[in-house]
Design goal:
The chain is mainly α. The protein has two helices and two strands, in the order E-H-E-H. The protein has one domain. Helix content is about 40%, strand content about 10%. The radius of gyration is 12 Å and the shape is globular.
Length: about 70
C-alpha cells in the first residue's frame, strides 16, 4: 500500500520519446526525465505536453495524486 512506480529515463538518453508513451500507457503517476537543460530531455517534456493535450487532463493523474501535492 502506498507504493507506486516512477518511470525514469537514463542519463545519456536519446531524443526518443517512447518512454513518455509507456508512462502514460502504464498509468504511471510520475515520469522522471530531468531538467530542461538538455535537448534530449526537452523533447520528452514537449511530448508529454502534446500527449496531455491529445488525451485531455481527465485521463491523467490528478495533481493531488502526487506525494508533494
Amino acid at each position: 500500500a502506498g507504493i507506486g512506480a516512477i518511470v525514469s529515463a537514463r542519463s545519456g538518453e536519446t531524443e526518443d520519446v517512447t518512454i513518455v508513451h509507456l508512462a502514460v500507457g502504464w498509468g504511471a503517476k510520475q515520469l522522471k526525465v530531468g531538467s530542461f537543460t538538455r535537448s534530449e530531455r526537452m523533447v520528452k517534456w514537449n511530448e508529454g505536453l502534446r500527449v496531455a493535450d491529445a488525451i485531455g487532463s481527465a485521463a491523467l493523474p490528478p495533481r493531488s495524486a502526487f506525494p508533494w501535492g
